Amino acid sequence: MLSSLLVANRGEIARRIVRTARRLQIHTVAVHSEADAGLPFVTEADEAVLIGPANPAQSYRNAEAILAAAKATGAEAIHPGYGFLSENAAFAATVQDNGLIWVGPGAEAIAAMGDKINARNLMAAAGIPVAPGTTDPATTVEAALDAATAIGFPVMVKAAAGGGGMGMAVASDDAGLRVEYDKVRGFAERMFGDGSVLIERYFPRVRHIEVQILGLADGRVVALGERECSVQRRNQKLVEETPSPALTPEQRAGLLAAAVRAGEAVGYRNAGTVECLFDPTTGQFYFLEMNTRLQVEHPVTEAVFGVDLVEEQLRVASGLAPTFDPAALAVTGHAIEVRVNAEDPKRFLPGPGAITTWVEPAGEGVRVDAGYVAGNTVTPSYDSLMAKLIVHGADRAEALARLRAAVAGFEVVGPKVNLPFFMELLDNAEFVAGDYDTGIVGRVR
């Protein structure tokens, strides 16, 4: 096992990685911006290094500053968490070129999956279903219109280099496509430095289901179940659960097998997620993208399989075997996670501020991964995620009951908070029945 680890991230995920590393007696180094100096992840690490001002471009996306911190502290490895530089193939390669261990997949796999069009083509070649769409970038609006005509409206207009639900829009006709194409392309050029656009069939009623894969040190790829991620606002997830209430055992087996093939197709190592759309009317699933990192929602997988995915990441990076027997993986119970964000529960607009009260729920089957405590300030410089509330029960009904009690017992005063939305969701008949899709937030609202 590696001996020292720099965590190139912030907030709840940095704190969560530090927790596992310290349990494994790995020396931890936190890097932080000026705005985050007082957050728990900084004080709980063995060492902390200031790397820049609040602006992420000058701190958490500043590769030179992070590498300098690693060298100054003698860190042996870098864990990127999610977001920021976690899916930057050039940074992963630079880390390794500097003689450090990268806790993630190889730069080649990150690059291969980072472009949505290239990823679609690779998956199709591996025999994995993909939604009807373009196999090359739509470089002009005319090319986009031709593609949409062939695919059939409505279509999804996507930034090929995008991620995290950003750079996506729906077009229902030619006029709408002209408008959305220009918007998405402009956004992609500004945000990702790549204006490539993908046109893909849009499914009005669809579920978003993903598979957790782990590429082991010996070359095998294993699947650790699926996660239902259909409760979304602005194409970004709010609630995740496992197992998915949508799948039959046969559909689940097919989905997991396809995800393993996806990982094998790119020689995948370490943790990753194969995201798919699932059409409940036909029972067909379609490859959406692969996230070459740890996911925000990984704790629900940990709950039902009894594994620590960060520990497994560190073991793979160290060339060690997993703590579990891949042939004996079994799901126990049901788990649900909600993302506690500093945002208006009605319109989901950010509402940062100083936290005057922070009371976390507790009890059997309840876990909270938080990035903040009372006295901290949620700034507008970063994502609005403050914490993740995870519950685990013997079945979905027990998990829902525990979630209701835990949401009611989570008290945050100061910034705006979306907890009231989850109380509404837990009263929604569709969600309670497990018969919902990606449009549920609009119907709850």
From TrEMBL:
Gene expressing this chain: accC
The ATP-grasp domain sits at 120-318
Q: Name one GO molecular function term.
A: ligase activity
Where does the Biotin carboxylation domain start and stop, copy by copy?
Answer: 1-445
Top-level taxon of origin: Bacteria
Which UniProt keywords are given for this protein, alphabetically ordered?
A: ATP-binding, Biotin, Ligase, Nucleotide-binding
PROSITE patterns cross-referenced by the UniProt entry: ATP_GRASP, BC, CPSASE_1, CPSASE_2
Q: Which organism is it from?
A: Dactylosporangium sucinum
Know the name of this protein?
Answer: Biotin carboxylase
